[in-house]
UniProtKB/TrEMBL annotation:
GO terms for molecular function: lipid transporter activity; sterol binding. One of its GO terms (biological process) is cholesterol metabolic process. This is SSD domain-containing protein. It is found in: Endomembrane system. Residues 570-732 form the SSD domain. SUPFAM superfamilies: Multidrug efflux transporter AcrB transmembrane domain. Gene3D superfamilies: Multidrug efflux transporter AcrB transmembrane domain. Belongs to the patched family.
Length: 1240
């Protein structure tokens, strides 16, 4: 073949099928040939026009390969030999010709090569990356070829009209016949030192063998192997400990039975003495305590604080009962003043302000990224998917019918308009436009330039399938915004790169994002997003379902909007929950004996609920004065919390007053004595709760911190009003009942006969506690069983706690009927690419004196352990690195763009101004489908010669001068490395003239992240990777992705949980020590509370409740509520007299009914209603956790704690006569201390 004889109808030149002798080129022509084909010397078999065509043809592939000099050299040599080799006739055979305008033209050839040559050629290029698309260059210049035959077959295919590729068919063959001598020139390996490629482009090089790809660094934990069984160290340790404890319990029980037998025999001998002293015989099963009773009683004086509190409350209660009106007036005025602050109420709904610490590293990195580069765009998305039939997979979605449906949907989206501040806003007004006026919509329709009129011109779905394989290499596949669209981002439901298996269209609309403090910067976008969701709900869904497909949709504002809707979705459920507790309070506070309309306490219960409401409003109002924003969790949870705490105190106060049976005393005296009796324990419980919540202020998470502040103040206000305002209301109610006035209608007085209130008799619950519950718990066998069961539960929970999964499933946080439920399901099922991840480099020094360029890049001459080479290695193990592909590198592309080898990229006119590639204006007239060689840019030359570069790298001045050119250069077929659009926001050029680029990013993608743990692990892996790279390279690097800021909390969620719980427990401990001055008593309380909390965490693990901000708040709150189940029983035990078992029985008789009816059942009734909540987060994090807390608290407070106190409780605080026989004294004291309990 020699010279050009004509062209195809589309203008592509064709060779002449001439057989001529090789010609001697002119000196100028020879220099041109040597610049491109250095292996061809002497005579050549091509004309200057033919050579110019060669140069023009190969330059489209050069930008893909120039980063690997060896590959580029081998690739160019292949076509140099085909076009200009003097021995061309030995390995090229023209097999077909065509005629145009009377001239014969080449239409097909056989090109003979050896297998060795083909294999070596492919091996030198197979791993070369194309950074702009984060994938292999072979995917574009070889359609993803896996071997040399596939690659050469693709390159030799005759291109269709106006398609890129060969103008005639080239058949590459290895089976030579006759005089044919296959081409077998030398091939330069990619690791050859003369033309070495980077490790990213040539991982098989010896120098690239180390370091190895990161290994699986997941911590499997400590295990012990026993035969074929592998047991965790924690499981084994807890098991051994439990066996030891069981052995100790059995030994104690055996010893107890021996002592019981001895004591029983001794009792028979002493029976006459017991009878003569009128002391009751021993209770069966309580032998050890009888022996203990025979010992001198260890009695300690009441503490100063305990006695001071009792005296204070007696005086305060008496004064309040005498001046209830004054107390109520002061309380109401005080609360009104606090509630006035509600006029300045502000509610914070922005997720980043709720769940991200202001000092968060991820938040600071996001702020840096937003300010130096560009905020990550807003995402609006549609997912259309086919529906699988029975026992069959979902059908292929890319059909003409579905594509036409997609055009109809797109037309409706384009036509969508909203009015914002008297201006019409459309998608075109707010979308991201990287290269001009076209939106960067990620859709399969981009293969048709988003133009439905081109659908049939481009052959419909067949064109789309063609573009799946030629997304970047074919000009007709470029998008309307002039950039390539990767099939993996617009299709879903396929495996690997088998796009013909796709079962979903993924349409993504990137919208400009603006970041500011006010939150109103995106007003136009938010308004359009709301209209977009309405369109999807009201029109698009019906359209799609009518075609037998499904539609899922979402906008950037969707989660926020749905969370706000959720906050009101369960108002009714919460109201019913409070109503149930109110009804129960009214029932439990009253006596309900004849006449019931007098002894009931409905008004008192209603007033108590009103006090709770005032406390919540007062707390919110107080902080509103100081401009502390409230949150939805405060509005939803704190009323429930304060009501639960307040009800306990109300029940305890009312029951204490009822126990003051001497009606001859005045109401004021009885109220004072009742408050003196229970005031210290109420104070102890309330202060413990307040401090437990106060320590939450030190939690870095804003939502938890604000919740703790509001809750602490609300509980404190509730306590203050309970011992003042509620006592005043209780005084009024007592006087009302004793004067025979009707509840709820106090103006109505009943007759004397009707007012004959029956005497109080112990209720069923009181009798059960005294006659059944307490005696059974005092049996040694029962004690042993209780300790064994509760210890086993505690140790089993310790084993379960590590199984708690950090995270908060977004679907749980949303209403059950939210459209986002289906969207997140579709994301998991169909998406095959994860969120983008950016590796951000601070203060990159590109000056000649610095080696940082080679420490970052991944092309030839870059360091083997450079950042981008390491990213490529990490992408080889996506299961552990969570990096899906090599990073798109502006630095690599810029260096390639500047290279003299990329002769179609960085070019200058003779006046040294920028000259674009030949297929761009002004070199090619705008609008032409095919650019023939013109005169406009014929004199353009490369920006630099090799001699101008410094060891293959630009000098500081060259870098500084050409970087803006690169960022403004549009990519095209002749130079795919242009940085405009792809890298426009990848660098911060402010101050770059000094040789330092303050911020730049290299973009990759995470693997698909389908679970909460995937997001946490991906964040942890990215941070570990950049920390390692920063330390290794001495360059500050950090990872950034849009979800990092919200998931960073889970990296330290265990630490946050542990610190919060330990601080809360410490606060409760010190309050107990301060008030009781008994370290031992405080330890018993803390042990019981700790067991409740650990058991609750065990239930969380079994009930699939994840560990997150909401559950941490609930765990801290559980400590405060658990105090209620413990301190009243413990305080009653401490002030009772007798043996430990007798005092435990008395505490159950005195406070057991109040704890069960006033604390357990009240919370239980309110919690049950939450099961019917519309929001799953209420059902999971409030119903499940509160229900478990109430059950565990009641079991520990009413069963385990009394048993523990009976075994090792503190000494009594009551004074005892020093010289009285202990047994007689305790029996007499027991009879003297019998009290009448209210009916419950």
């Amino acid at each position: 073949m020699y010279d050009l004889c004509g062209a195809r109808k589309d203008g592509k030149p064709l060779n002449c099928p001439k057989v001529v002798e090789a010609v001697t080129p002119t000196e100028t022509f020879s220099h041109k040939i040597q610049s491109l084909c250095p292996t061809i010397t002497g005579n050549v078999c091509c004309s200057e026009d033919q050579f110019d065509l060669l140069r023009q043809s190969v330059q489209q592939a050069v930008p893909f390969l120039v980063g690997c000099p060896a590959c580029l050299r081998n690739f160019l040599d292949l076509y140099c030999e085909l076009s200009c080799s003097p021995d061309q006739s030995l390995f090229v055979d023209v097999i077909s010709t065509s005629r145009e305008h009377g001239r014969e033209l080449v239409d097909g050839i056989d090109f003979y090569i050896t297998e060795e040559y083909g294999t070596q050629l492919f091996d030198s290029c197979k791993d070369v990356k194309f950074a702009a698309m984060n994938t292999r260059a072979m995917d574009f210049i070889g359609a993803g070829a896996k071997n040399y035959t596939d690659w050469l077959s693709f390159m030799g295919h005759r291109a269709g009209s106006y398609e890129a590729g060969s103008p005639y068919q080239i058949n590459y063959k290895t089976n030579a016949v006759g005089d044919i001598r296959p081409l077998n020139t030398s091939v330069t390996p990619c690791w050859d030192s003369s033309l070495s490629c980077s490790c990213g482009d040539c991982p098989s090089a010896t120098s690239c063998a180390e370091p190895l790809p990161p290994s699986d660094n997941k911590d499997e934990g400590c295990h012990v192997t026993l035969g074929s069984l592998q047991i965790g160290c924690l499981n084994l340790g807890m098991g051994i400990l439990y066996v030891v404890i069981l052995l100790g319990i059995v030994a104690w029980w055996i010893q107890s039975r021996k002592e019981h037998s001895n004591t029983t025999g001794q009792s028979d001998i002493n029976e006459p003495l017991l009878v003569s002293t009128n002391v009751s015989p021993p209770v069966p099963g309580q032998g050890p305590e009888i022996e203990e009773a025979g010992k001198p009683e260890k009695i300690q004086d009441p503490t100063f604080i305990e006695s001071s509190l009792s005296r204070w409350f007696r005086a305060q209660g008496t004064w309040t009962a005498r001046h209830p009106g004054i107390v109520l007036f002061i309380a109401i005025v005080f609360m009104i003043l606090l509630c006035i602050g509600l006029l300045q109420l502000q509610v914070e709904t922005r997720p980043e302000k709720l769940w991200v610490s202001p000092g968060s590293e991820a938040a600071e990195e996001k702020a840096y990224f937003d300010s130096h580069l560009a905020p990550f765009y807003r995402i609006e998305q549609l997912i259309l998917a086919t529906i699988p039939s029975a026992n069959e997979s979902a059908p292929y979605i890319v059909t003409n019918q579905n594509l036409l449906l997609l055009f109809e949907i797109q037309a409706k989206v384009d036509a969508l308009r909203v009015n914002v501040s008297n201006s019409s806003v459309s998608l075109q007004d707010i979308c991201t436009k990287p290269t001009g006026s076209a939106c960067a919509t990620q859709s399969v329709l981009q293969y048709f330039k988003m133009d439905s009129s081109k659908f049939y011109d481009y052959q419909g779905s067949a064109h789309a399938e063609f573009c799946f394989e030629h997304a970047s290499s074919a000009a007709q596949c470029l998008s309307a915004f002039e950039g390539p669209v990767e099939p993996g981002t617009v299709l879903g439901g396929f495996s690997g790169t088998n796009y013909t298996e796709a079962t979903a269209f993924v349409i993504t609309y990137p919208v400009e994002n603006f970041v500011g403090e006010s939150g109103d910067e995106n007003e136009k976008a938010v308004a359009w997003e709301e209209a977009f969701i309405r369109l999807a709900k009201e029109e698009l869904t019906a359209m799609v379902e009518g075609e037998g497909l499904t539609l899922a949709y979402s906008s950037e504002n969707s989660i926020k909007a749905e969370l706000e809707r959720e906050s009101t979705a369960d108002v009714g459920t919460i109201a019913v929950s409070y109503l149930v507790m109110f009804v129960y309070i009214s029932f439990i506070l009253g006596d309900w004996v004849s006449p019931w309309y007098v002894t009931s306490k409905t008004m008192l219960g209603l007033a108590g609920v009103g006090i709770v409401a005032l406390c919540v409003l007062g707390s919110i109002g107080l902080f509103s004065y100081f401009h502390v924003k409230s949150t939805l969790i405060i509005v939803e949870v704190i009323p429930f919390l304060v009501l639960a705490v307040g009800v306990d105190n109300m029940c305890i106060l009312v029951h204490a007053v009822k126990r003051q049976a001497n009606k001859d005393e005045s109401v004021e005296t009885r109220v004072g004595r009742a408050l003196a009796e229970v005031g210290p324990s109420i104070t102890l419980a309330s202060l413990s709760e307040v401090l437990a919540f106060t320590v939450g202020i030190f939690t870095p998470m804003p939502a938890c911190r604000v919740f703790s502040m509001f809750a602490a103040v609300a509980v404190l206000l509730d306590y203050l009003l309970q011992v003042t305002a509620f006592v005043a209301l209780l005084t009024y109610d007592l006087k009302r009942a004793e004067s025979g006035r009707v509840d709820c209608f106090p103006c109505i007085a009943v007759t004397a006969e009707s007012n004959d209130v029956q005497a109080h008799e112990p209720g069923v619950l009181v009798k059960y506690m005294k006659d059944v519950h307490a005696p059974v718990l005092n049996l040694p066998a029962v004690k042993a069983l209780v300790v064994a069961l509760f210890t086993g539960l505690f140790l089993a929970s310790i084993v379960l706690v590590p199984n708690l999964v950090p995270g908060l499933d977004q679907r749980v946080a949303l209403p059950r009927d939210s459209y986002l439920q289906g969207y997140f399901g579709n994301i998991t099922e169909h998406l095959r690419v994860g969120p983008p991840v950016y590796f951000v480099v601070r203060d990159y020094n590109y000056s000649t004196e610095s080696n940082q360029t080679n420490l970052l890049c991944s092309i030839s001459q870059c360091e083997p352990n450079s950042l981008l080479n390491e990213v490529s290695r990490a992408a080889l193990v996506p299961d552990t690195s969570f990096i899906a592909r090599p990073a798109a590198s502006w630095l690599d592309d810029f260096l390639v763009w500047m290279s003299p080898d990329a002769f179609g990229c960085c070019r200058t006119f003779p006046d040294a101004s920028y000259c674009p590639p030949d297929d761009q204006p002004p070199c090619c007239p705008e609008g032409d489908d095919y650019c023939s060689e013109g005169d406009t840019c014929k004199d353009c030359t490369t920006c630099f010669l090799r001699a101008d570069l410094l060891e293959g790298r630009p000098t500081t001045e060259q870098f500084r001068e050409k970087l803006p050119w690169f960022l403004e250069a549009l990519p095209s077929a002749d130079c795919a490395k242009g940085g405009h659009g792809a890298y426009s926001t990848s660098l911060d050029l402010n101050g770059y003239e000094d040789g330092v680029i303050k911020a730049s990013e290299f973009r990759s993608y995470h693997t698909p992240l389908n679970k909460q743990t995937d997001y946490v692990d991906a964040l942890r892996a990215a941070k570990d990777f950049t920390n390692r790279m920063s330390k290794s390279l001495g360059i500050e690097i950090f990872p950034y992705s849009v979800f990092y800021m919200f998931f960073e909390q889970y990296l330290d969620i265990w630490k946050t949980t542990g610190i919060s719980l330990l601080l809360a427990l410490a606060a409760v401990f010190f309050v107990n020590v301060f008030i009781t001055t008994s370290v031992w008593t405080s330890c018993i309380v803390i042990l019981t509370i700790a067991m409740i909390v650990i058991d609750l965490m065990g239930v969380m693990a079994l009930w699939n409740i994840q560990l997150n901000a909401v559950s941490v708040v609930n765990l801290v709150m559980s400590i405060g509520i658990a105090v209620e189940f413990c301190v009243h029983i413990t305080h009653s035990f401490a002030v009772s007299s007798g043996t430990r078992s007798e005092r435990a029985s008395k505490s159950l008789s005195t406070m057991g009914a109040s704890v069960f009816s006033g604390i357990t059942l009240t919370k239980f009734a309110g919690v049950l209603v939450l099961y019917f909540a519309k929001s799953e987060i209420f059902e999971v994090y409030y119903f499940r956790m509160y229900l478990a807390l109430v059950i565990l608290g009641a079991l520990h407070g009413l069963i385990f704690l009394p048993v523990l106190l009976s075994l090792c409780g503190p000494n009594t605080m009551r004074e005892a006569p020093p010289n009285r026989h202990a047994k007689q004294y305790l029996e007499v004291s027991r009879g003297a201390e019998e009290v009448t309990e209210p009916v419950t």
